[in-house]
Amino acid sequence: MPHMSRIDNAETVASWDARDELLREQVVLHKTRRAGRFSSLLQALSAISKLRKHVSDRKLIGGRCGRPAMGGGNEDTVMQQQPLVTRPHHRSPWRVISDKVISKIWDLDHSTLSKSGSVPGVNWDEPPLTTKSRHGEDLVLRFNISTAEEADKLAEVANHMYLDVWDQTETWVDVRLAKDTLPHVLKQLPESMQHSHTALMQEKELQQAIYDTYPKPRLSSSAPASHGRDSIFTPSLNRGGSPANTAEHNIFFVDYQPLSVIEPWMRLLASLFTTHVRLVDIGTTFEGRNIPALRVGVHPTNGEEPSPPRKTVLITGGIHAREWISVSTVTYVAYSMITGYGKDPEITQLLEDFDWVFVPTINPDGYVYSWEHDRLWRKNRQSTPLRFCFGVDLDKSFPYRWDPSSAGNACSDGYAGEAALDGLEARALADWAHNETTNNNVAFVGLLDLHSYSQQVLYPYAYSCDAIPPSLENLEELAVGLTKAIRINSGHSFMARQACEGNVARFESSGGSALDYFYHDVGVRYAYQVKLRDRGAYGFLLPKEHIVPSGREMLEAVLYFGRYVDGEFEGWEAGKKRKLRSQRGW
């Protein structure tokens, strides 16, 4: 029987605590859809804590558990240590108790919890095995372009060889390609481009960057010290401080989250904050999933006179499946504004003056596919005329200036479908917006469509720089203000420009975008596409450490957006004075 030192003792306790905490977090994350039992869960967790204290007080050591006594014993006590991974079919007394209590509350089969410490639908293992086979030998290159001829030739090669163009400006183009195709690509490019490229990610770096975006099991010591055990599922009802501080102390934003976690989380928020949050359904995807959204706002209660159309701002993310940071940023801003109501005067007024509709992902099918099969998947998952090619680029599927030239190749990442609104999720969003304005007394005044990457704030039009939007001056002014708000918050520089300049038409058509559709057809006066962090170092594979900083800077941009649209600066103050006079009966 080996001796256990004080260090071994501490490590065993840490492993025990890590298992307990991981179990608690996973169960709550996956099962928050049962929000109606929230109070029962709190009671159960309290009971578990008491039971755990009772177990600890009785110093249950030895046996199958092998857990050391918590204090009070001889430091040199000889104990038999049983590693957690060597006898998985034996469960400790504490594990038995916690499994039974949790399964009782959530109607779970405790055997599924005891085998791996995880809940079905929440995958804490490595990314899909297909990741290596798909992208194990890929790399990402940035080609510098200096002439129109170079850009045209690179676009021709990219289209011919089905290269994955990640992003582009007038001066550079980021391309993902298999390493063994690089010589063939260079052979077709002009001499001036033979050495005009740099590697943003080598093949091993790309694969590692993909792995790093998936959640990993967290030990107790790796979580921020300020996180309470319940903070992952319990929005702060009493905690002071700014909304941004509240959000960044929530474990939900430590990792990117799959749809199986996001949807229950949204339901929980709607059930907890019934005064100003409502869960709405935008429509149904090709694979039958709902497109969930949170409508956040406080409506006036005076029903004596007909109310004017409710001013509404739409904030969307995830129209392209692989742009995970856009999904997390939408949820961060939504959470901050929801929990900030009644605490932050600015947020409170914005929720009284507007409705804010948050759609974390317009493309749930593609988002799930990017988690389970291909991290770099872009389109939705509907069938196409080509049997083995799936998906439509939803951001090219809207009817305004839909481009038939994008309908030629169903295997292309930029495939726009056979006709306008062929993308089912794009059609669902368009139908929902039309119904809101026609039947539900809604006036859309703002759109913030979040994407990644390149740090740009883009305004209409995307389809052509020859078309001048009627409100160009206001669009430019607000875009510059948004970039300034971001820079003041984080020091990161975003560029404000017309969307047609931010998208190089040589590489892909920009017709049929959500940006142009909402601005022109729906009549949204302030419509923007915001490309979030970074500028290419990680591209679509932004490390999870950027979730909170990206959310913080976007929250500041959203607050500035609200101030401007609500009559910034003089109009904002005048509005507050009018409201105060009305409340006092003056």
Automatic annotation (TrEMBL):
The superkingdom listed in its UniProt entry is Eukaryota
The Peptidase M14 domain, residue ranges = 255-565
So where does this one cross the membrane?
none
Q: Where in the cell is it found?
A: Secreted; Vacuole
As for what it does, the entry says: Inactive carboxypeptidase that may play a role in cell wall organization and biogenesis.
Q: Name one GO molecular function term.
A: zinc ion binding
Q: Give the keywords, sorted.
A: Cell wall biogenesis/degradation, Disulfide bond, Metal-binding, Secreted, Signal, Vacuole, Zinc
* UniProt cross-references to InterPro entries, sorted A to Z: CARBOXYPEPT_ZN_1, Peptidase_M14
| Named cofactor requirement(s) | Zn(2+)
Q: Which GO terms describe its cellular component?
A: extracellular region; vacuole
Q: Name one GO biological process term.
A: cell wall organization
Q: Which family does it belong to?
A: Belongs to the peptidase M14 family.
Task: Outline the segment boundaries, as ranges, of region: Disordered.
Answer: 217-240
Q: Name one Pfam family in it.
A: Peptidase_M14
Q: Return the PROSITE patterns for the record.
A: CARBOXYPEPT_ZN_1, PEPTIDASE_M14
Q: Which organism is it from?
A: Myriangium duriaei CBS 260.36
Q: Is Phosphoprotein tagged as a keyword? A: no
Q: Which PANTHER family match?
A: INACTIVE METALLOCARBOXYPEPTIDASE ECM14, PROTEASE FAMILY M14 CARBOXYPEPTIDASE A,B
What is this protein identified as?
Inactive metallocarboxypeptidase ECM14
